[in-house]
Design a protein that fits this description.
The protein is an alpha/beta fold. It is 31% helix and 28% strand. α5 links the parallel β7 and β8. The protein has 6 helices and 10 strands; from the N terminus they run βββαβββαααβαβαββ. α4 packs parallel to α5. The strands form 2 sheets. A 6-stranded mixed sheet has the order 6-7-8-3-9-10, with helices on both faces. Strands 2-1-4-5 form a 4-stranded antiparallel sheet, with helices on one face. It binds adenosine-5'-diphosphate and magnesium ion. The site of magnesium ion has 4 residues, from α1.
Length: 207
């Protein structure tokens, strides 16, 4: 269980997060919906350890989250800058699990690439695939490292309807029984399709 308490984050011109608290049970899939600029990405980046909060605490099973990335228990799909351009799709997917043995890594890539229909793109570089394919590779990379909490920053936006439905369904199946997730989105339809519990943010607050 992850518990986020009293997070405050100020930028010079705006208080992006104003005392945000929430808890996520094991296996729970939560959406955070809200208008552009309300603080969704800032919150995910703080949970991921990419930026520091001014104050507040985040714990996993009552222990403070580790600052060491692979011990933090969190993986993330970013809103943009999805993949490393100097690595193939396969290398991107395996980026977060260098410590796993060869057999496990091969199996992970194969299963995730098959689930997302990108099995024939594994040797390509990010500039040789489409935006929708890059999103699927980014999702596969976040799932490959098998962390307890998956952070999704609008990973389903700008996709064709059929593809979107398919990717949401696959991602839900891949999470079920394995990890919890926070989906940040401004789309109610995406939230309803992926998540069981729904939170709303406005100007740095969870309503
Ligand atoms: P959302 O993801 O909900 O669109 P963000 O978390 O990206 O919102 O941004 C929340 C607020 O913080 C916005 O007002 C945004 O302009 C501001 N902000 C985000 N990042 C920075 C930054 N690095 N420097 C200054 N202001 C920022
Ligand atoms: Mg954002």
């Amino acid at each position: 269980m992850f518990e986020i308490k009293g997070i405050i984050k100020e930028y010079p011109s705006v208080r992006a997060l104003d005392n945000v608290s929430l808890s996520i049970d094991d296996g729970e899939l939560i959406s955070i919906q809200g208008e552009s600029g309300c603080g969704k990405s800032t919150l995910l980046q703080i949970i991921a350890g990419i930026i520091m909060a001014d104050s507040g605490t985040i714990t996993k099973n009552n222990e403070p989250l580790s600052c060491i990335p692979h011990k933090r228990g969190v993986s993330m799909v970013f809103q943009d800058s999805l993949l490393f351009n100097n690595m193939t799709v396969s290398e991107n997917i395996l980026f977060g699990c260098p410590h796993k043995d060869r057999e496990h890594r091969d199996k992970t890539v194969r299963e995730l690439a098959d689930a997302y229909g990108i099995g024939d793109l594994l040797k390509r570089y990010p500039y040789q695939i489409s935006g929708g394919q890059a999103r699927r590779a980014a999702l596969a990379r976040a799932l490959a490292c098998e962390r307890e909490l998956l952070l999704l920053d609008e990973p389903f936006s700008n996709l064709d309807k059929d593809l979107k439905e398919n990717i949401i369904k696959r991602t839900r199946e891949l999470c079920e029984g394995k990890c919890s997730a926070i989906l940040v989105t401004h789309s109610e339809a995406e939230a309803l399709a992926f998540c069981d519990r729904h939170l709303y943010m406005e100007e740095g607050h969870i309503l």
